[in-house]
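I had to read the description of the data format several times before I understood it. For illustration, here is how one protein appears when written out as sequence plus structure tokens:
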Amino acid sequence: MDHPVVSSLLPVVLLIVVGLVTGKLKLIRQEAVRDLSNLVFLVLTQALLFRTMSSVHVQDLDFEPVSLYFAVAAALFTVMLLVQGASSRAAVIALSGTFSNTVMIGIPLVGLAYGKDALVLLFTLISLHALVLLTFATVVLELLSAREQSAEADGPPRHPLKSIGLAVRNAVVHPVPMPIIAGLLYAQTGWGLPDVVDRPLQLLGNAFGPVALVLVGVTLSNAAIGRNLTGALVISAVKTLLHPALMALIGYAFGLRGMSLTVLVVAASLPIGANVFLFSQRYQKAEDLVTASVAVSTLVALVSVTVVMTLVPLIAG
């Protein structure tokens, strides 16, 4: 129980189990899931993202290692998207293969295993993680959704530039990028958040992880797990094995060594973050598959993250 992987992942597993039991007992009805999803996505996520970014000072960040992390994630996202046929559903699944649970699992895991110095790099990654990956995924999703809606509608097809313009607008005026951008802009003023504002935001942000994971369990109680188990295992393997393997190989090729390479490879090996589940709920794409994948990847990570943490010192030096 003192092993960093076990102590970091077990609380996540237990929260999903709590939601699963709650859903099976009908304490939270399926009809309420959409409302709870909106609560998490439109309230708790906003508080977490704004508060996280409100203390980020761009001049203090070391962009070189994390930029390589995002390049690897973007490349894997693109390959997964193209392999599945470049649809909005494929975009949600591609996000599942690239978006890690860096906060609830990553922070305690890296802190316990590697100490305070490693957390500095992880916090740099976390400060940009949602901004880069979720905004990128949102733009792709909006573009693909616009194309699909245009194909389904009667009449002449929408001009490509108009589709791109609408997609970019929808991606910016969106519950994910807006609090990130607002928080980042506020951080550059140097004012800091007054305690009377910071404390409520902290409480709301802290509620995001537990509520989102319980909601995963509730949704899981009504999902067709058997039908999605094979797909969930494939996505979990991509997220917890292929993603870190690519990060290790490309990071090593570009000269990353030591703690920088170790932290980024371990971050890539983490299971799927709950934000992907919320994306699937919001766009109503691959909901059962993503729900199953979040749960399965968390269980798989008990083994896969241990393997990655055992092997990464061999190349990190």
